[in-house]
Amino acid sequence: MSKKKMTLHQEKALELGISAALIAQAQRRGAVHADIKAFTKEDDDFLAKLSQTLGVPKLLKAQLSRIPKKKRKLPVQTAHYADLKAWEFHALALFTKGYRKGQPIGSDIVLQQLHLKYRVQNTPTIRNRLHQLRKLGRSRARKEQSIESQNVG
User: Fold this and answer.
1) What secondary structure does DSSP assign to 98-130, as a single string?
2) 115-150: b or e for each residue (b if 16 or more CB lie within 10 Å)?
3) Most CB contacts within 10 A, which of 37, 43, 55, 133?
4) Closest CA to 136 of 86, 80, 87
5) What end-to-end distance do the CA atoms of the chain give, in Å?
6) Dihedral angle of Cα 50, 55, 60, 64, to the nearest 10 degrees
7) What are the boundaries of each domain within the chain?
């Protein structure tokens, strides 16, 4: 069994104790050299200082205050979607789409599709999770419809 080889970004991130995404974002914005091989001591120091200041609550509050309230709430409202497994996300999308169209899709039909695509079995645990996702899909569709009606009116 072979280990995956790390990219230059991952190696540099490990060396500096920061995330590779931070390095990539700093490169995109021109804050550090575009070529990671050309990084200087100043680039390393800048990234280290930047990573130290990113989590400071006062600085985060100042940054967030520049973003409109509606946009600030969106990541918080959708954060739990990141933890969904692929089949759960697919089921949620199916339920939401059905409720949006006004034609709710049944759990049995969703379960059949999930079995074909993801080999999900019909167990009590899966059925309970589908029930939760169906309720979440319904509330998600209702929120979208209320937002659309607010924007229109």
Assistant:
1) HHHHT-PPPHHHHHHHHHHHH-----HHHHHHH
2) eeeeebeeeeebeebbeebbebbeebbeeeeeeeee
3) 133
4) 80
5) 60
6) 100
7) 8-64, 75-152
Residue 143's identity, in one-letter code, is: K
Q: Which amino acid is at 39?
A: F
pLDDT digits (tens, 9 = 90+) for 6-22: 888 888 888 888 888 88
Q: Are 44 and 23 in contact (CB under 8 A)?
A: no
- Asked if residue 114 lies in contact with residue 120, where contact means CB atoms within 8 angstroms, the answer is yes
108 vs 122: CA distance, rounded Å: 9
Describe the crossing of helices 41-54 and 20-28 by its angle, rounded to 10 degrees. Answer: 110
